Amino acid sequence: MIDKDMYEFLEDCEKDLINQLCFRCPELSNKQIDVIVEIFRAEIDKQLQSGK
Question: Is the pTM of this model over 0.85?
Fold first, then answer.
């Protein structure tokens, strides 16, 4: 289990990713951004699992 600070940090990273995608890639649809965020979450989960 990750601690609260790490969880909040990862949430902030996800929010920043979404903001950056919206700002820098306005041609992306909401669905495309959702897919990118899901890939981000899956990769984070994979990294956290391998760090055990």
Answer: no
